[in-house]
Amino acid sequence: MKLVVLICLPFLFVSCESPGVLQTGPNQFMVSRMSAAGAFANRTKLKYDVIREANDFAASKGKMAEGIVWNETLAAPGQLPSFEYQFRLVNRDSAGSGRQAVSSSATHIEIDR
Hints:
22% of the residues lie in helices and 29% in strands. By secondary structure, the chain is α+β, with helices and mostly antiparallel strands. It has a five-stranded antiparallel beta sheet. A hairpin with an 8-residue loop joins β3 and β4 (82-90).
């Protein structure tokens, strides 16, 4: 039993890989990631990795990722922390030209275009 615990313990502190960029609609994409570290997860790194993946995807298309909505789920008993980022691709010269509206929730942001 102790051997199983010692073998499995390192995997508890590894962040789960993202399934990649998913297209959710016309010019709308989503990246999400869940951390297997539970309450010990580095939430900042989780967010950074997701947004970096979105930015890398956009750069590979010659565009920029413009955030639409993001949602963070905090660790709780029986629930692993996760971060989901929805974005659209925009030309580099037109990024940031819209109005941004932040919702009242601390873990959810919506950008109105």
